[in-house]
Amino acid sequence: MELKDLAVNALLQNKKAALLIGGAGVAVLGLGLGYKYLRKPEKVVRVGVVSQLLIHPLKSGRAVSVALAECQNIGLKFGELQDRHWLVVTEDGHMVTGRQEPRLVLVSLTCEGGQVCLNGPNIEELRFPVKEPDNPVIDCRVFSSDIQGRDCGEEASQWLTRYLGAEKTFRLVHFEPQMRARRPVEMEPLFPQYEQVAYPDVGPVMLLSEASVKDLSGRLEKDVTVDRFRPNIVVGDCEAFDEDSWEEIQIGSVRLQRVMSCGRCIFTTVDPETGIINRKEPLETLKSYRLCKPSEKHIYKTSPLFGQLHTVKKTGILQVGDVVYKISR
User: Fold this and answer.
1) In this structure, are residues 83 and 38 in contact, taking their beta carbons and an 8 Å threshold?
2) For this UniProt entry, which segments traverse the membrane (predicted)?
């Protein structure tokens, strides 16, 4: 073959290869563009501002207001304080809440220098270590679910028993990361199968707006505060019950997914300032205008709806003053 023919053949082969490579590149680019345009872009709308962040370390105990919190899949955390990670139980491990012992709402549990600090009215402060690895792990029941807790010792038990002034003995337990958690889906089928919590009623994060609380207060003889409803995230600069329609929200780097409304019970009738239960208000008023649609009766039954339960799609840091964005597609 002459030099001229070899040159022509080489040129034709290179042209074929270039066409093949170019075609493959166009196909990949086309797929990428197709995915981009098939996937609906997110629409981000400012809907409010975080006005309070509240951690309830002790289930049914006083809230701890923080300026900043870590939002984990299992709930809010600040230092050694984690939301609903301490629980009062009977000697056989059944949970005790403000529904049975209303004065629990006056008990404050905080942490300082590796110590748990328990405080309540007319009783001396008790301190004990956060970590007590030699104490036994107790099998507990929260509603109908099994869960574990590390016993916090005899002194904590005596303190609670003396404070609550009951005939029976109470114990305090602490949930630790390696323990068997609860699955909300066992109580509420709307929750994802993989979701886990410690001692909250159902979900890891509850959100409520200031405006919704103000709207309710306007219908009552006596004003109520946010504390009565025990949310984690309080949102200002929005209208009453706007939060009902926030299916997905972004706060700082945190992404939250609404699962369901929070159905309210007799616990809302405990005054967080006095620890007295009236068994009537604001529950009766809520029932007059916040019942679910007939199509949702199988979920909420006769419970009025107030606040929204969320799961954490993306963890991160929350701060008071953060803008709340509603995400839609």
Assistant:
1) no
2) 17-38
Q: Which residues contact 118 (CB under 8 A, 6 or more apart)?
A: 107, 108, 109, 125, 126, 127, 156, 159, 160, 172
Q: What is the largest CA-CA distance in the chain?
A: 110
* Element containing residue 283 per DSSP (H, E): helix 283-289
Structure confidence by residue, pLDDT tens digits, 85-136: 999 999 999 999 999 999 999 999 999 999 999 999 999 999 999 999 999 9
User: How far apart (Å, rounded) are the C-alpha atoms in residues 91 and 40?
Assistant: 54
Please give the mean pLDDT across all residues of the chain: 91
Please enumerate in sequence order all residues whose Cβ is within 8 A of that of 162, keeping only pairs 6 or more positions apart, or say none. 123
Do 111 and 117 meet the contact criterion of CB atoms below 8 Å apart?
Answer: yes
Beta strands 248-251 and 233-236, pairing class: unpaired
Predicted pLDDT at 119: 98
pLDDT tens-digit series, residues 249-298: 999 999 999 999 999 999 999 999 999 999 999 999 999 999 999 999 99
C-alpha angle 159/160/161, rounded to 5°?
95
Cross-strand partners of 84: none
List Cα–Cα distances, 11 to 5, 16, 17, 91, 329, in angstroms: 10, 9, 10, 88, 50
Question: pTM for the whole thing?
Answer: 0.88
| Four-residue CA torsion sign, 43, 49, 54, 55 | positive
- Residue ranges per domain, the chain? 44-328
> Nearest-CA neighbor of 177 among 82, 299, 60, 110?
82
CATH among 3.40.190.170, 2.40.33.20, 3.30.930.10, 1.10.3210.10 for 44-328: 2.40.33.20
Whether omega for the bond prior to residue 282 falls within 30 degrees of 0, making it cis, is yes
